[in-house]
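Dear colleague,

Following up on Tuesday's group meeting, I ran the structure prediction for the three-component complex that the binding team flagged. I've pasted the input sequences exactly as they went in, so you can double-check that nothing got truncated or mislabelled along the way. The C-alpha coordinates for the whole assembly follow below. Feel free to forward this to whoever is handling the docking comparison.

Inputs:
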Amino acid sequence: MIKLTSIRTLAALALAGGVVLGGAATADEEAELVINGELTLVTKTAAPDHLKDTLDTIYSGWIFRENDTQAMQTDDFDNPGMVFVDLGMDAWNKVEGTENKSCASCHNDPAESMKGVRATYPKWNEAAGELRTIEGQVNHCRTKNMGAEAYKYVSGDMANMVAMIAVQSRGLPMNVAIDGPAKAAWELGKEIYYTRTGVLDLSCASCHEENYDKYIRADHLSQGQTNGFPAYRLKDARLHQVHDRFWGCIRDVRGEPYDRGSPEFTALELYVASRGNGLSVEGASVRN
Amino acid sequence: MELNRRETLALGLGAAAVMALPVRFAAAATGEEMIAAFTGGAAVTEGGVTVTAPEIAENGNTVPVAVSSEGAVAIMVLAMGNPTPGVATFTFGEGAGAHAASTRIRLAGTQDVVAIAKMADGSFARGAATVKVTIGGCGG
Amino acid sequence: MADGVKPRVKAPATAKAGEAVVLKTLISHVMESGQRKNKDGSLIPRSIINRFTCEFNGTMVVDVEMHPAISTNPYFEFEAVIPATGELKFTWYDDDGSVYNDAKTVTVA
Protein backbone atom coordinates (compact mmCIF):
# COMPACT_ATOMS: atom_id res chain seq x y z
CA MET A 1 0.00 0.00 0.00
CA ILE A 2 1.38 3.38 -0.88
CA LYS A 3 1.44 5.57 2.19
CA LEU A 4 -0.99 8.22 1.03
CA THR A 5 0.27 11.04 3.20
CA SER A 6 0.89 12.76 -0.10
CA ILE A 7 -0.41 15.97 -1.47
CA ARG A 8 -3.32 14.12 -3.10
CA THR A 9 -4.87 13.37 0.27
CA LEU A 10 -4.33 16.96 1.31
CA ALA A 11 -5.85 18.12 -1.95
CA ALA A 12 -8.89 15.92 -1.39
CA LEU A 13 -9.34 17.27 2.12
CA ALA A 14 -8.84 20.83 0.89
CA LEU A 15 -11.42 20.39 -1.86
CA ALA A 16 -13.86 19.07 0.68
CA GLY A 17 -13.29 22.25 2.62
CA GLY A 18 -13.95 24.35 -0.47
CA VAL A 19 -10.33 25.34 -1.04
CA VAL A 20 -8.61 24.30 -4.25
CA LEU A 21 -4.93 23.48 -4.00
CA GLY A 22 -2.84 23.90 -7.13
CA GLY A 23 -3.01 20.19 -7.72
CA ALA A 24 -4.08 20.07 -11.36
CA ALA A 25 -0.86 18.46 -12.51
CA THR A 26 0.03 16.07 -9.68
CA ALA A 27 1.47 12.65 -10.41
CA ASP A 28 -0.96 10.02 -11.59
CA GLU A 29 -0.07 6.80 -9.79
CA GLU A 30 -2.33 4.69 -11.97
CA ALA A 31 -0.96 6.01 -15.26
CA GLU A 32 0.42 3.59 -17.81
CA LEU A 33 3.68 4.25 -19.57
CA VAL A 34 3.35 3.46 -23.27
CA ILE A 35 6.22 4.42 -25.54
CA ASN A 36 5.47 5.60 -29.07
CA GLY A 37 1.97 4.21 -28.78
CA GLU A 38 3.23 0.64 -28.94
CA LEU A 39 5.53 -0.45 -26.12
CA THR A 40 3.94 -0.74 -22.66
CA LEU A 41 6.46 -0.57 -19.84
CA VAL A 42 5.99 -2.09 -16.41
CA THR A 43 6.23 0.75 -13.92
CA LYS A 44 4.53 -0.97 -11.00
CA THR A 45 4.92 -4.57 -9.92
CA ALA A 46 5.29 -6.91 -6.95
CA ALA A 47 8.48 -6.42 -4.97
CA PRO A 48 11.18 -9.03 -5.62
CA ASP A 49 11.56 -11.87 -3.09
CA HIS A 50 14.51 -10.39 -1.23
CA LEU A 51 12.44 -7.29 -0.53
CA LYS A 52 9.05 -8.84 0.26
CA ASP A 53 9.40 -8.34 4.02
CA THR A 54 9.86 -4.60 3.50
CA LEU A 55 7.82 -3.56 0.45
CA ASP A 56 4.75 -5.02 -1.27
CA THR A 57 4.99 -3.09 -4.49
CA ILE A 58 7.83 -1.45 -6.35
CA TYR A 59 7.34 1.61 -8.54
CA SER A 60 9.40 3.21 -11.27
CA GLY A 61 10.43 6.81 -10.67
CA TRP A 62 8.17 7.70 -13.61
CA ILE A 63 5.11 7.21 -11.41
CA PHE A 64 6.11 10.02 -9.07
CA ARG A 65 6.54 12.73 -11.69
CA GLU A 66 4.07 15.43 -12.77
CA ASN A 67 1.82 14.70 -15.77
CA ASP A 68 3.83 16.95 -18.11
CA THR A 69 7.07 15.20 -17.18
CA GLN A 70 5.47 11.78 -17.59
CA ALA A 71 4.12 12.74 -21.01
CA MET A 72 7.55 13.74 -22.24
CA GLN A 73 8.77 10.17 -22.03
CA THR A 74 5.98 8.66 -24.09
CA ASP A 75 7.24 9.77 -27.50
CA ASP A 76 10.83 9.28 -28.62
CA PHE A 77 10.69 12.68 -30.30
CA ASP A 78 9.40 14.43 -27.19
CA ASN A 79 12.04 12.73 -25.03
CA PRO A 80 15.13 14.95 -25.07
CA GLY A 81 17.27 12.05 -23.86
CA MET A 82 16.87 10.36 -27.23
CA VAL A 83 19.02 12.88 -29.10
CA PHE A 84 21.82 11.76 -26.77
CA VAL A 85 21.06 8.14 -27.61
CA ASP A 86 21.60 9.22 -31.24
CA LEU A 87 24.97 10.67 -30.24
CA GLY A 88 25.76 7.41 -28.47
CA MET A 89 24.95 5.58 -31.69
CA ASP A 90 27.33 7.87 -33.60
CA ALA A 91 30.05 7.02 -31.09
CA TRP A 92 29.25 3.29 -31.45
CA ASN A 93 30.08 3.53 -35.14
CA LYS A 94 33.13 5.72 -34.76
CA VAL A 95 36.51 4.11 -35.34
CA GLU A 96 38.89 5.04 -32.53
CA GLY A 97 42.14 3.86 -31.00
CA THR A 98 45.26 2.01 -32.07
CA GLU A 99 43.36 -1.09 -33.22
CA ASN A 100 41.36 0.94 -35.74
CA LYS A 101 38.03 -0.40 -34.53
CA SER A 102 34.68 0.94 -33.55
CA CYS A 103 32.27 -0.76 -31.14
CA ALA A 104 30.42 -1.90 -34.25
CA SER A 105 33.50 -3.72 -35.58
CA CYS A 106 33.00 -6.46 -32.98
CA HIS A 107 29.47 -5.90 -31.73
CA ASN A 108 27.74 -5.11 -35.02
CA ASP A 109 24.13 -4.02 -34.51
CA PRO A 110 23.60 -3.05 -30.86
CA ALA A 111 19.90 -3.94 -31.12
CA GLU A 112 21.06 -7.55 -31.17
CA SER A 113 24.39 -7.57 -29.37
CA MET A 114 23.43 -5.23 -26.51
CA LYS A 115 19.93 -6.59 -25.91
CA GLY A 116 19.59 -7.67 -22.30
CA VAL A 117 22.74 -5.90 -21.13
CA ARG A 118 21.05 -3.03 -19.28
CA ALA A 119 18.63 -5.48 -17.68
CA THR A 120 21.35 -7.65 -16.17
CA TYR A 121 24.08 -5.19 -15.25
CA PRO A 122 25.90 -4.72 -12.88
CA LYS A 123 27.12 -8.23 -13.49
CA TRP A 124 29.91 -10.41 -12.22
CA ASN A 125 32.72 -10.72 -14.75
CA GLU A 126 34.41 -14.09 -14.23
CA ALA A 127 37.50 -13.40 -16.33
CA ALA A 128 38.18 -10.14 -14.53
CA GLY A 129 37.08 -11.44 -11.13
CA GLU A 130 35.04 -8.37 -10.40
CA LEU A 131 31.56 -6.89 -10.52
CA ARG A 132 31.21 -4.77 -13.65
CA THR A 133 28.90 -1.90 -14.49
CA ILE A 134 28.12 -1.02 -18.11
CA GLU A 135 30.50 1.94 -17.78
CA GLY A 136 33.24 -0.35 -16.53
CA GLN A 137 32.69 -2.74 -19.42
CA VAL A 138 32.66 0.07 -21.99
CA ASN A 139 35.99 1.35 -20.73
CA HIS A 140 37.45 -2.16 -20.59
CA CYS A 141 36.51 -2.67 -24.25
CA ARG A 142 37.81 0.76 -25.26
CA THR A 143 41.19 0.39 -23.61
CA LYS A 144 41.89 -3.34 -24.08
CA ASN A 145 40.17 -4.10 -27.38
CA MET A 146 40.15 -0.80 -29.25
CA GLY A 147 43.33 0.70 -27.88
CA ALA A 148 41.36 3.85 -27.32
CA GLU A 149 41.26 6.21 -24.35
CA ALA A 150 38.79 5.41 -21.62
CA TYR A 151 35.82 7.73 -21.26
CA LYS A 152 35.67 9.62 -17.99
CA TYR A 153 33.37 7.45 -15.85
CA VAL A 154 30.74 10.17 -15.47
CA SER A 155 30.79 12.24 -18.64
CA GLY A 156 28.64 13.20 -21.59
CA ASP A 157 30.39 10.66 -23.81
CA MET A 158 29.83 7.84 -21.34
CA ALA A 159 26.24 8.84 -20.59
CA ASN A 160 25.41 8.88 -24.31
CA MET A 161 26.88 5.41 -24.79
CA VAL A 162 25.19 3.92 -21.74
CA ALA A 163 21.86 5.48 -22.76
CA MET A 164 22.15 3.98 -26.24
CA ILE A 165 22.94 0.58 -24.74
CA ALA A 166 20.06 0.92 -22.26
CA VAL A 167 17.55 1.59 -25.02
CA GLN A 168 18.37 -1.80 -26.54
CA SER A 169 16.89 -3.43 -23.43
CA ARG A 170 13.88 -1.14 -23.22
CA GLY A 171 10.83 -3.07 -22.13
CA LEU A 172 12.80 -6.00 -20.67
CA PRO A 173 12.41 -6.54 -16.93
CA MET A 174 15.35 -5.60 -14.73
CA ASN A 175 16.96 -8.88 -13.70
CA VAL A 176 20.30 -8.51 -11.96
CA ALA A 177 21.80 -11.57 -10.28
CA ILE A 178 22.28 -11.23 -6.54
CA ASP A 179 23.60 -14.73 -5.81
CA GLY A 180 26.74 -16.63 -6.72
CA PRO A 181 29.93 -14.57 -7.10
CA ALA A 182 27.96 -11.30 -6.93
CA LYS A 183 26.60 -12.08 -3.48
CA ALA A 184 29.37 -10.43 -1.47
CA ALA A 185 29.05 -7.19 -3.42
CA TRP A 186 25.26 -7.32 -3.07
CA GLU A 187 25.60 -7.62 0.71
CA LEU A 188 27.99 -4.67 0.76
CA GLY A 189 25.58 -2.64 -1.36
CA LYS A 190 22.73 -3.50 0.99
CA GLU A 191 24.78 -2.41 3.99
CA ILE A 192 25.60 0.94 2.34
CA TYR A 193 21.92 1.42 1.46
CA TYR A 194 20.83 1.13 5.07
CA THR A 195 23.70 3.02 6.69
CA ARG A 196 22.98 6.57 7.79
CA THR A 197 25.58 9.08 6.74
CA GLY A 198 26.35 12.74 6.49
CA VAL A 199 25.55 15.77 8.59
CA LEU A 200 21.86 15.13 7.93
CA ASP A 201 22.34 11.54 9.14
CA LEU A 202 20.21 9.92 6.46
CA SER A 203 20.49 6.61 4.64
CA CYS A 204 19.08 5.81 1.20
CA ALA A 205 16.31 3.98 3.03
CA SER A 206 15.42 7.02 5.13
CA CYS A 207 13.90 8.70 2.07
CA HIS A 208 13.41 6.02 -0.55
CA GLU A 209 12.06 3.20 1.59
CA GLU A 210 10.53 4.86 4.63
CA ASN A 211 9.21 8.04 3.01
CA TYR A 212 8.70 7.48 -0.70
CA ASP A 213 5.60 9.20 -2.09
CA LYS A 214 5.96 11.98 0.50
CA TYR A 215 7.21 15.43 -0.40
CA ILE A 216 10.57 16.76 0.76
CA ARG A 217 9.92 20.47 0.23
CA ALA A 218 8.68 20.42 -3.36
CA ASP A 219 10.32 17.17 -4.47
CA HIS A 220 8.06 14.15 -4.71
CA LEU A 221 10.18 11.32 -3.29
CA SER A 222 10.41 8.18 -5.40
CA GLN A 223 11.57 4.72 -4.35
CA GLY A 224 14.98 5.55 -5.79
CA GLN A 225 14.85 2.84 -8.46
CA THR A 226 17.44 2.75 -11.22
CA ASN A 227 15.48 1.09 -14.03
CA GLY A 228 15.16 4.47 -15.74
CA PHE A 229 18.83 5.35 -15.81
CA PRO A 230 20.50 7.07 -17.54
CA ALA A 231 17.82 9.61 -16.74
CA TYR A 232 17.37 12.90 -18.58
CA ARG A 233 16.71 15.32 -15.75
CA LEU A 234 14.73 18.38 -16.70
CA LYS A 235 16.19 20.43 -13.88
CA ASP A 236 19.55 20.59 -15.62
CA ALA A 237 18.57 19.30 -19.03
CA ARG A 238 21.06 16.46 -19.30
CA LEU A 239 21.49 12.71 -18.91
CA HIS A 240 22.48 11.42 -15.48
CA GLN A 241 24.22 8.14 -14.76
CA VAL A 242 23.59 6.06 -11.63
CA HIS A 243 26.87 6.87 -9.89
CA ASP A 244 26.35 10.54 -10.59
CA ARG A 245 23.02 10.36 -8.78
CA PHE A 246 24.46 8.40 -5.87
CA TRP A 247 27.19 11.02 -5.59
CA GLY A 248 24.65 13.85 -5.63
CA CYS A 249 22.40 12.21 -3.04
CA ILE A 250 25.24 11.67 -0.58
CA ARG A 251 26.47 15.22 -1.14
CA ASP A 252 22.92 16.43 -0.46
CA VAL A 253 22.89 14.80 2.98
CA ARG A 254 26.24 16.49 3.54
CA GLY A 255 28.13 13.23 3.58
CA GLU A 256 31.33 12.18 1.85
CA PRO A 257 30.41 10.43 -1.36
CA TYR A 258 32.40 7.47 -2.67
CA ASP A 259 34.06 8.03 -6.04
CA ARG A 260 32.06 7.57 -9.18
CA GLY A 261 33.11 4.20 -10.54
CA SER A 262 34.28 2.97 -7.12
CA PRO A 263 33.69 -0.62 -5.94
CA GLU A 264 31.39 0.77 -3.22
CA PHE A 265 29.13 2.56 -5.70
CA THR A 266 29.25 -0.46 -7.99
CA ALA A 267 28.10 -2.67 -5.12
CA LEU A 268 25.42 -0.14 -4.22
CA GLU A 269 24.31 -0.01 -7.84
CA LEU A 270 23.86 -3.79 -7.85
CA TYR A 271 21.84 -3.69 -4.66
CA VAL A 272 19.63 -0.79 -5.79
CA ALA A 273 19.14 -2.39 -9.21
CA SER A 274 18.02 -5.60 -7.49
CA ARG A 275 15.35 -3.64 -5.58
CA GLY A 276 13.89 -2.88 -9.00
CA ASN A 277 14.02 -6.39 -10.43
CA GLY A 278 10.77 -6.76 -12.36
CA LEU A 279 10.38 -3.14 -13.43
CA SER A 280 10.97 -2.49 -17.13
CA VAL A 281 14.19 -0.97 -18.37
CA GLU A 282 13.12 2.48 -19.58
CA GLY A 283 16.12 3.33 -21.74
CA ALA A 284 16.70 7.04 -21.42
CA SER A 285 13.95 8.11 -19.04
CA VAL A 286 12.69 11.63 -18.33
CA ARG A 287 12.75 12.80 -14.75
CA ASN A 288 12.62 16.08 -12.88
CA MET B 1 11.99 73.32 -14.67
CA GLU B 2 13.24 75.57 -17.37
CA LEU B 3 15.50 74.05 -19.99
CA ASN B 4 17.90 76.04 -22.04
CA ARG B 5 18.22 75.29 -25.76
CA ARG B 6 21.24 73.06 -25.29
CA GLU B 7 19.53 70.91 -22.65
CA THR B 8 16.38 70.59 -24.75
CA LEU B 9 18.38 69.45 -27.78
CA ALA B 10 20.32 66.96 -25.69
CA LEU B 11 17.09 65.55 -24.28
CA GLY B 12 15.59 65.24 -27.74
CA LEU B 13 18.66 63.58 -29.19
CA GLY B 14 18.86 61.24 -26.26
CA ALA B 15 15.26 60.21 -26.69
CA ALA B 16 15.74 59.72 -30.44
CA ALA B 17 18.81 57.58 -29.76
CA VAL B 18 16.88 55.32 -27.40
CA MET B 19 13.99 54.99 -29.84
CA ALA B 20 16.38 54.09 -32.66
CA LEU B 21 17.90 51.18 -30.74
CA PRO B 22 16.47 47.81 -31.74
CA VAL B 23 14.89 46.28 -28.66
CA ARG B 24 17.31 43.35 -28.80
CA PHE B 25 20.19 45.56 -27.80
CA ALA B 26 18.42 47.51 -25.08
CA ALA B 27 20.21 45.81 -22.20
CA ALA B 28 17.26 45.39 -19.88
CA ALA B 29 14.11 45.88 -21.96
CA THR B 30 11.14 45.13 -19.78
CA GLY B 31 8.30 42.92 -20.88
CA GLU B 32 6.09 45.95 -21.40
CA GLU B 33 8.78 47.61 -23.54
CA MET B 34 9.08 44.51 -25.69
CA ILE B 35 5.32 44.38 -26.15
CA ALA B 36 5.31 48.05 -27.13
CA ALA B 37 8.08 47.46 -29.65
CA PHE B 38 6.19 44.48 -31.12
CA THR B 39 2.86 46.31 -31.39
CA GLY B 40 4.25 49.73 -32.22
CA GLY B 41 2.08 51.02 -29.42
CA ALA B 42 -1.20 49.73 -30.95
CA ALA B 43 -4.03 48.56 -28.72
CA VAL B 44 -3.96 44.95 -27.57
CA THR B 45 -7.25 43.18 -26.94
CA GLU B 46 -7.60 40.40 -24.38
CA GLY B 47 -8.56 36.99 -25.66
CA GLY B 48 -8.13 34.91 -28.78
CA VAL B 49 -4.68 33.76 -27.70
CA THR B 50 -4.30 30.53 -25.76
CA VAL B 51 -1.27 29.89 -23.57
CA THR B 52 -1.03 26.33 -22.28
CA ALA B 53 1.44 25.74 -19.47
CA PRO B 54 1.46 23.62 -16.30
CA GLU B 55 -0.16 25.19 -13.26
CA ILE B 56 2.78 23.98 -11.21
CA ALA B 57 6.15 23.35 -12.89
CA GLU B 58 8.22 20.67 -11.18
CA ASN B 59 11.32 22.61 -12.11
CA GLY B 60 11.94 25.98 -13.72
CA ASN B 61 14.51 24.83 -16.20
CA THR B 62 12.39 22.95 -18.73
CA VAL B 63 8.74 24.04 -18.65
CA PRO B 64 6.54 22.91 -21.57
CA VAL B 65 4.52 25.81 -23.02
CA ALA B 66 2.19 25.95 -26.02
CA VAL B 67 0.72 29.03 -27.68
CA SER B 68 -1.96 29.28 -30.31
CA SER B 69 -4.06 31.99 -31.89
CA GLU B 70 -6.21 31.33 -34.91
CA GLY B 71 -5.31 33.60 -37.78
CA ALA B 72 -2.19 34.97 -36.13
CA VAL B 73 0.74 35.93 -38.36
CA ALA B 74 3.09 36.01 -35.42
CA ILE B 75 3.03 35.26 -31.70
CA MET B 76 5.51 36.75 -29.25
CA VAL B 77 6.02 34.88 -25.99
CA LEU B 78 7.32 36.60 -22.86
CA ALA B 79 8.20 35.40 -19.37
CA MET B 80 7.29 38.52 -17.46
CA GLY B 81 9.22 37.59 -14.32
CA ASN B 82 12.51 36.53 -15.91
CA PRO B 83 15.61 38.76 -15.79
CA THR B 84 15.20 39.13 -19.55
CA PRO B 85 11.54 38.57 -20.46
CA GLY B 86 12.04 37.55 -24.10
CA VAL B 87 11.28 33.90 -24.82
CA ALA B 88 10.50 33.51 -28.51
CA THR B 89 8.63 35.09 -31.37
CA PHE B 90 6.99 32.67 -33.78
CA THR B 91 6.31 34.01 -37.25
CA PHE B 92 4.03 31.76 -39.29
CA GLY B 93 4.46 31.50 -43.04
CA GLU B 94 2.16 30.29 -45.78
CA GLY B 95 3.32 26.74 -45.16
CA ALA B 96 2.16 26.70 -41.55
CA GLY B 97 -0.51 24.11 -40.82
CA ALA B 98 -1.72 25.88 -37.70
CA HIS B 99 -1.02 29.17 -35.96
CA ALA B 100 0.32 27.39 -32.94
CA ALA B 101 3.59 26.13 -31.56
CA SER B 102 4.96 24.33 -28.50
CA THR B 103 8.32 24.65 -26.87
CA ARG B 104 10.10 24.29 -23.52
CA ILE B 105 11.26 27.31 -21.58
CA ARG B 106 13.16 28.46 -18.53
CA LEU B 107 11.26 30.28 -15.81
CA ALA B 108 13.21 31.98 -13.04
CA GLY B 109 10.32 31.74 -10.61
CA THR B 110 6.55 31.84 -10.34
CA GLN B 111 5.29 34.29 -12.99
CA ASP B 112 3.00 35.00 -15.89
CA VAL B 113 3.83 33.68 -19.33
CA VAL B 114 2.34 36.18 -21.80
CA ALA B 115 1.66 35.75 -25.51
CA ILE B 116 0.94 38.64 -27.87
CA ALA B 117 -0.47 37.67 -31.24
CA LYS B 118 -0.26 39.84 -34.34
CA MET B 119 -3.25 39.12 -36.52
CA ALA B 120 -3.41 39.26 -40.31
CA ASP B 121 -5.38 42.53 -40.21
CA GLY B 122 -2.65 44.20 -38.16
CA SER B 123 -4.49 44.05 -34.83
CA PHE B 124 -3.02 42.56 -31.67
CA ALA B 125 -4.39 40.18 -29.05
CA ARG B 126 -3.10 38.92 -25.72
CA GLY B 127 -3.26 35.75 -23.68
CA ALA B 128 -1.44 34.62 -20.54
CA ALA B 129 -0.98 31.79 -18.06
CA THR B 130 0.39 31.86 -14.53
CA VAL B 131 2.97 29.19 -13.78
CA LYS B 132 3.97 28.37 -10.22
CA VAL B 133 7.60 27.28 -10.16
CA THR B 134 8.57 25.16 -7.19
CA ILE B 135 11.97 24.92 -5.61
CA GLY B 136 13.11 21.35 -5.20
CA GLY B 137 13.92 19.76 -1.89
CA CYS B 138 16.71 17.30 -2.02
CA GLY B 139 16.73 16.75 -5.77
CA GLY B 140 20.28 18.02 -5.84
CA MET C 1 30.52 24.15 -35.40
CA ALA C 2 30.04 23.33 -31.73
CA ASP C 3 30.71 19.76 -30.67
CA GLY C 4 27.83 17.43 -30.02
CA VAL C 5 25.16 19.64 -31.62
CA LYS C 6 22.81 17.19 -33.25
CA PRO C 7 19.32 17.75 -34.64
CA ARG C 8 16.51 15.23 -34.24
CA VAL C 9 13.34 15.71 -36.25
CA LYS C 10 10.03 13.84 -36.40
CA ALA C 11 8.20 14.25 -39.67
CA PRO C 12 5.84 11.82 -41.39
CA ALA C 13 7.17 10.01 -44.44
CA THR C 14 3.87 10.37 -46.27
CA ALA C 15 0.89 12.71 -46.25
CA LYS C 16 -2.29 13.42 -48.16
CA ALA C 17 -2.26 16.42 -50.47
CA GLY C 18 -3.03 19.54 -48.42
CA GLU C 19 -2.78 17.72 -45.08
CA ALA C 20 -1.46 19.58 -42.05
CA VAL C 21 1.17 17.39 -40.38
CA VAL C 22 2.69 17.68 -36.90
CA LEU C 23 6.45 18.21 -36.78
CA LYS C 24 8.64 17.81 -33.73
CA THR C 25 12.18 19.18 -33.69
CA LEU C 26 14.93 18.95 -31.11
CA ILE C 27 18.57 19.92 -31.24
CA SER C 28 21.18 19.18 -28.60
CA HIS C 29 22.58 22.57 -27.59
CA VAL C 30 23.52 23.96 -24.21
CA MET C 31 21.81 27.34 -24.80
CA GLU C 32 24.16 29.18 -22.46
CA SER C 33 21.94 31.98 -21.23
CA GLY C 34 24.54 34.49 -20.17
CA GLN C 35 23.13 34.47 -16.63
CA ARG C 36 25.31 31.70 -15.20
CA LYS C 37 28.57 32.39 -13.40
CA ASN C 38 31.94 30.70 -13.38
CA LYS C 39 33.53 29.45 -10.17
CA ASP C 40 35.45 32.74 -9.96
CA GLY C 41 32.22 34.73 -10.16
CA SER C 42 32.60 35.96 -13.73
CA LEU C 43 29.64 35.63 -16.06
CA ILE C 44 29.70 32.85 -18.63
CA PRO C 45 28.94 34.66 -21.88
CA ARG C 46 25.69 34.00 -23.72
CA SER C 47 25.91 31.46 -26.51
CA ILE C 48 22.59 30.26 -27.81
CA ILE C 49 20.77 29.25 -30.94
CA ASN C 50 18.98 32.49 -31.72
CA ARG C 51 16.82 31.47 -34.67
CA PHE C 52 15.05 28.41 -36.05
CA THR C 53 13.31 28.17 -39.39
CA CYS C 54 11.33 25.53 -41.21
CA GLU C 55 10.34 25.66 -44.83
CA PHE C 56 8.67 23.26 -47.22
CA ASN C 57 9.67 23.38 -50.89
CA GLY C 58 10.87 26.92 -50.36
CA THR C 59 7.69 28.13 -48.65
CA MET C 60 8.19 29.37 -45.10
CA VAL C 61 6.41 27.34 -42.42
CA VAL C 62 7.69 28.97 -39.26
CA ASP C 63 10.48 31.38 -38.35
CA VAL C 64 11.33 31.52 -34.65
CA GLU C 65 13.33 34.28 -33.01
CA MET C 66 14.81 32.63 -29.92
CA HIS C 67 15.95 34.12 -26.61
CA PRO C 68 17.95 32.63 -23.70
CA ALA C 69 14.70 31.59 -22.00
CA ILE C 70 14.38 28.69 -24.43
CA SER C 71 15.54 25.58 -22.54
CA THR C 72 18.72 23.66 -23.22
CA ASN C 73 18.18 21.27 -26.14
CA PRO C 74 15.58 23.50 -27.80
CA TYR C 75 12.36 21.75 -28.73
CA PHE C 76 9.63 22.96 -31.08
CA GLU C 77 6.40 21.33 -32.13
CA PHE C 78 4.34 22.90 -34.89
CA GLU C 79 2.35 22.04 -38.03
CA ALA C 80 3.14 22.30 -41.71
CA VAL C 81 0.83 22.01 -44.71
CA ILE C 82 1.98 19.49 -47.32
CA PRO C 83 0.44 20.42 -50.68
CA ALA C 84 2.57 17.98 -52.73
CA THR C 85 5.63 15.76 -52.42
CA GLY C 86 8.59 17.79 -51.32
CA GLU C 87 11.29 18.51 -48.80
CA LEU C 88 11.06 20.01 -45.34
CA LYS C 89 14.16 22.01 -44.48
CA PHE C 90 15.06 22.80 -40.88
CA THR C 91 17.72 25.37 -40.01
CA TRP C 92 19.15 26.46 -36.68
CA TYR C 93 21.33 29.58 -36.36
CA ASP C 94 23.92 29.75 -33.56
CA ASP C 95 25.16 32.97 -31.90
CA ASP C 96 28.67 31.87 -32.91
CA GLY C 97 27.75 31.92 -36.59
CA SER C 98 27.33 28.18 -37.04
CA VAL C 99 24.31 26.98 -38.96
CA TYR C 100 22.85 23.51 -38.42
CA ASN C 101 20.59 21.78 -40.92
CA ASP C 102 18.29 18.84 -41.26
CA ALA C 103 15.86 17.83 -43.97
CA LYS C 104 12.99 15.37 -44.35
CA THR C 105 11.21 14.32 -47.52
CA VAL C 106 7.44 13.97 -47.36
CA THR C 107 5.78 12.01 -50.14
CA VAL C 108 2.21 12.70 -51.19
CA ALA C 109 0.75 9.44 -52.44
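Chain B touches chain A through 17 residues (CB under 8 Å).

Cheers,
M.
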